[in-house]
C-alpha cells in the first residue's frame, strides 16, 4: 500500500450518487473483512477504520490512533487494498491516516455509540473543538487524549443494558478527591459501539468541571507518553506526575502491548489505588481476557467493580434511533421518519449504536436524494446490506467450566483443582476440549485458565475426547448438546 501525495491529487467534488456508491462499497468491504478474519480480529483492528472520501482513485481512510494505523499497515495492508479496490469503483490505492479529535459539523449524522444531542456550536455554526484534559505545573505537563464535548452524562442514553455502568460512572464522577474511592478500579467493558468511551469521557468531563486533577488517556496515548518520557530521560518525572492525579481514566486498555509498558501500567495502577486515587478503565473484554497483563494485575482489575455494558435491547435501540432522527431533522428540516420506520430500524439492527447511526444516515440520504417519502418498504431497501444474520454468542471459558461442572454434578473449583478421580478428570477434559473448539484461545491460555496447567495437558485432553467421541455415540451426542447450550442465544 503506497501512500498517495495529497498535493499531487486533484480533488474534485463527488456527486451524491458517487458518495453513496462509495459508502455501499465500504459496507461490503467491512462485511468481507469480518467474514475473512473473524469477529474478534475485525472488532480489534477494523471496527474503527472508516472511509473518509475517494479522490482521484485514492481511498482516504482513517483510524483514531497511531497504534491502529501502524498495526493495520504492518499486518493487513496487502489484503486491504485488493478488497477496497474490488468493492469501491476506481480505487487504485489506499491511504490510512489518524483522524483528528477536532471535527466540524457535516450534513451527515456523526457516527458514535451514544450521542443524543447535537454538538455545541459556535456562532458561525461550526462544531466546537474537542478539548484535551490537561493540567500544568512548573516545568512538566501531563496532557491527555482529546475529549469529545458531546460525550457527557447529559447526552448518554440509559437502558437496561447500561444502567448499572451509568450509575457507577456517575457515582465515581461525583466523588470528590477527599472522599475514599468506593469502586476502585471501576472497570467497564463492552463490545464495539455500545458507548463505553462515551461513558468514561463523561466521567472525565464531570471531574474536570469540579476542579479535580483528572486525565483521560487511550492505551495508545499512555504508551506514547511513556516512550517519549524514556527518550527524554524523564521517565521518573512522568510516572510521578501520573501518580499524583486524582482520577486516572484509561480507554481501550486491551491495546496495551510491549514488554515494559504493561508493567509500568501495573505499577502506576497499584500506586494510585494504594493511595486511594480513583482509576477508571474501559476495554472491550473482561479483565480475565487481557492476555497482555499478568495474573496479579488481572486479579487487581477484577477486585474493583467490573461492569459489562451489554447489547442494546429494543427499547434502548428505539431511543437511539429517535435521537439520531432528531439530530438529522435539525440539519435537514424536511426529513421525516415515521414511527413505524423507527421501530423497524430498531428491530432489525441489533448489533450496536454505530450500525444504527449508519442506518439513519442511509435514510437521510434516501429521503433527501430521491425526494420520496420514507416507508417501511423503502427503509428496508435502504438498509438491506446493514442487516446481517445474528452471529453466535461469544463463548467464554468460564461459561464452559460452569456449564460442564453443573452438567456432571461437580463444582467449578473441582475442575480447576489437581484432583485425579474419574468423576473429575473426564469433565475436566471435556471442558478443555470445548474450550479449544468453541473459543479462539491458545492451548497455553486454556491451560492457564484450568489451574495453570501445561499446554501439553490440554492437547492430551482434546485428543482423548476427540478419539472417545468417534467411538462412543452417546458421548458424541452429549458433546453436541453441550455445544448447543453454550452457543444458543
Molecular structure report:
- This protein is of the alpha/beta class and 489 residues long.
- The protein has four domains: 1-100, DnaA, N-terminal domain (GMP Synthetase, Chain A, domain 3), CATH 3.30.300.180; 137-309, Rossmann fold; 311-391, Helicase, Ruva Protein, domain 3; 397-487, Chromosomal Replication Initiator Protein Dnaa, Chain: A, CATH 1.10.1750.10.
- The chain is 50% helix and 12% strand.
- It contains 20 helices and ten strands.
- The strands form three sheets. It has a five-stranded parallel β-sheet with strand order 7-8-9-6-10, sandwiched between helices. Strands 1-2-3 form a three-stranded mixed β-sheet. The protein has a two-stranded antiparallel ribbon with strand order 4-5.
- It is globular, with a radius of gyration of 25 Å.
